[in-house]
Amino acid sequence: MTRKLILQMQMSVDGYVSPANGSLDWQLWGWGDRWGWDDRLKRDFNAVFEGIDTILLSRLIVQEGYLDHWGRAAKRFPADPHYAFAQKIVEARKVVLTDKLESSRWERTVIARGGMAEEVDALKREQGKDIITIGGVGFASALVAAGLVDEFQFFLNPTAVGAGRSVFHDPHKGHKLRLLGSTAYESGMVVNRYVPVT
Asked: Where does the record place the Bacterial bifunctional deaminase-reductase C-terminal domain (predicted)?
């Protein structure tokens, strides 16, 4: 049995993962200390990381500081159960899909230089837990277009942004999805989980 690639993205209620107005403060939680999520959402978010052992990342997100940020958070909040995921990020195997970096300067992190489909398929065939992918809209869109995503986890923020970018770009066939579950939280966030219908 192959393991799943899970795409996790924050999304606005009108379906955008990246608003046209880049300065718009639309997420209940970015990477900062202002964390507008309720305790149950934080607990459920941490539970996702219990089921993964590999993180697939874009070059841009690692260069923007994703691994450095959560490495510092793991050290700052070692006993806080809400930050257990930060320790999981540190401990997990990280794979950065790029041919633009010569080597990795991040712990437990390797550079994958092959084609996207070949590298992801090879990861899925390995033994282990599921793989989560985190990156910007361009990286996520490429994974979706290549048909590599096995599960979508959309964190629907209670904000409409009016315009922006989506991870879905097939205007002819669209993308049929089957809902696995939907959970509403006190903070206003709704988490929807889907699998693609082929």
From this structure: 3-191
